[in-house]
Records
---
Amino acid sequence: MNFHQKPNMFVESIFLQVQDLNRSVSFYTNILGFKVLKTSNDGVSLSADGKTEMIILQYNEGVREREARKTGLYHFALLLPERRHLGAFLAHMIKAGFPLQGASDHLVSEAIYIADPDGNGIEVYADRPADAWVWEEGEVEMSSLPLNAEELLSEGIGYEWSGMPEGTTIGHIHLHVSDLKEAEKFYCRTLGYEVVNRYGSQALFLSTGGYHHHIGLNTWNGAGAPAPSGESAGMKLFTIMLSDMDEREKVLERIRQSGASFTLDSQRILVHDPSGTQLALSVK
């Protein structure tokens, strides 16, 4: 089952403000293996399949080091099509000598964690089959167990890493928020996500269509954490795809009723969540 196509709501792209455009392009192309889709004087857009814009990098004069202990991006997650791709990616990272920040078995998936040159967290992962996920009373079982690296590496034998494979998507995005209850109200009541896992009192996982999560929320940077300034390197925007224009109108009406400020940009709805993170709601 494809959880990253309509009628599900999924993250399609992410916009990052960077301190050094050449450095970031080198990382995303040479280390992660993205393809350059478009370039401008101050920006580059990247794709896995050579057609779909997934990551937009932009440099603005005066951009400072990514501010700590703020709301916004915790990590964005790149979902690879098959487990063998993840095994080959791990072998590639070892060969490149690139430092890993972590590696986990989440029961529903296996994941490798790294950071880009500006300190943005990135998860590269592969899902286990959906029929192997364990659900109880509407919540999916997830954990953070040690990854069996040897077994994963053996899965990638015979497949040489040559860049992000076609079919790679942004599987989910995980955000620092200032107030978990307010964030839940916005993403669930206003946008239409469903809670699929409560991780104690400090984190929440949301999805549509029975996925283990399209959105993660946490207060690990502290309840009441402020939003970053406009000069901070990091995520400036992410795009959620809605199923169709009818769904767009329903979501727009709920945004109006919630009192959240928004603007309309062509077919996109631009809105900030209660923690100050900007997102675009779009329809193909």
---
Amino acid sequence: MPVPILLVTGFLGAGKTTVVNHLLAHAEGRRIAAVVNDFGAINIDAELIADASDGVVSLANGCICCSLEGDLLRTLSTLLRRDPRPEYIVIETSGVADPADIVRNLMDPVILREAPLETVLCVIDAATPAAALDDALQRSQLRVADIVALSKLDLAGEGAGARMREAIRAQRVLAVVVDARHGEIPSALLFPASDRAPAPREPGPKRPAEERFETLSWTSDHQLSLPRLQQVIGKLAPKLARAKGLFETVEQPGRQMVFQFAGGRATLAPGDAPAPGMPRARIVFIAELGVLAKAELDALMDGCIASP
């Protein structure tokens, strides 16, 4: 039997990982394989994890999760050879990936026969300014979608969902638009009960790849001062597309904090115990090319180190 693919796309920080987490945590008996670009971003509840080997984490509910290393088609071929075979495959794209290129790869006749692309889901932060949908990348992510899920409605403010729906309609997008509170989307939309293989898609002409974003990393073996870090993030915010990291603060020693920045909003949450041998602070920043200099970032972040 063919194994249907659900492709999850959306811009940096839109909430894709939250949607994938919810799917895996509420699989309802389905054997789902998730393929993600950044495995560390998947935050499955500890009680779901059974074991890990060869880059694949097996979950106690019968699902598995693996990182995308190398060629997508090779990764899919490996999953399809697993025993038991997954019943569904979820692919979470990078926030800066053009999904049309991935759709084009999935139209490979061998993959199409074994793992047809069933549904393309685009996740959009409901607080995204309407003008941002004119961006070529976000427009491409929208136009290949069968379903558009509005995320972070609880943070977006009153009327944001309605405004975003109007902005999506203005883009002449034919997809179904649904609310995705806390990452929840009706499974019947994502996994339709049908024995009929989906028709091949036309992703459109191939466009030249454009390097638009860069990743800058900062690490330290020292605790951070939370007030200083908050000030620095405020200064960096206008230049950032996304940021995430783990660190320990002098205010709460011995406790690792999980930092996320997306859509202009920063959040902090308690994390697991720090891994032995890892730096006390490690943060990844994503910005458009040339917007943020490494020397500037290092100088600002070094200023967040707590005094001994």
---
Amino acid sequence: MSTLSAFKNFTDSLDEQEQLMPVLFIGHGSPMNGIEDNEFSQRWTQMAKEIPVPKAVFVVSAHWFTRGTHITAMDFPETIHDFGGFPQALFDVQYPAPGNPQLAKDTAALIHTTDVGLAHDWGLDHGTWTVVRRMYPEATIPVLQLSIDYTKPPQYHYDLAKEIYALRKKGVLIIGSGNMVHNLRLVSWDKINTPGYGFDWALKMNDIFKELITSGTHDKLIKYENLGKEAMLAIPTPEHYLPLLYTLALQGSNDKVSFFNDKAVAGSLTMTSVKIGN
């Protein structure tokens, strides 16, 4: 079967199904989690075994911050090593998952908030491949990315995410990849290998985020700047936080919420992750 025929057959198979795919927000942390066998990466692997096998994976990554909204639309997205100062072994990693241009077009058509560009000059950045390769190491499931428009406010992103809810009905796993608490300027580097170590303000803010997520109080999470000085320490810039809003916007009325990898790292980061759905 030709590559184009395989893609066509895949797209034709995206019928609605009875069970909604869950939605994940994953605290991805250091790029090293992509190659290290640690408690965080092990939990990503286990999560893939606990949920239905997706027909595609659609990731909103903190590391594709753009003007306008774009979706990767190439047959085979490249593995992007968008970092520096790490061991060569990390740069050597390739994650050769296919893309799906037709699914990119179909998803763009779901979004009416804005015109969506079909991108051929990006790929899978480390907010995506470090996580997804631990979940689906065979690299046979198509993977797409949605960019985050840095010119728009949090409410805009939350509302846009609601427009792709239909993907959950078609077996597509949507992942927001970032970190709830992410302040690299205040990282305690001497504690980088001590999972669970968090500054008081980071732990407090992480607990507040979890309480608001559990209670479904999304409006306060959207207007996070009103949550006090701890919130501004936790979110000095929004790119790692906004993927959480994409995930929360996709919550249905009957979806359960649970947390995993709920630990602080290096004082000013949290790996706390969210599963929405059964």
---
Amino acid sequence: MGNWTRVCAKDDIEQENLIRFDHEGRTFIVIRSPDDTFHCTDGICTHEHVHLGDGLVMDHVIECPKHNATFDYRTGEAKRAPACINLKTWPVKVEGNDILIEI
């Protein structure tokens, strides 16, 4: 079991948008869905190690800004080539106005 780490305030992320979070040498992204839920994945594309922080978020998918690979950010599943390896996902919880991830 990991430690809960504060990422940001809820209001820092608009619906269908994301925030990049770097912690102890790792990069994560936290995404706010159109359903107003929060999800966290590794922040680096599994295809060519590109930061996903500049990726497009739409319809429960994050698209890599380099080669347009897509992932379901709820599960981490690689949905479109060239990515074929899933993203790791991380537990998220909301406490008051704070978004926390368990890492």
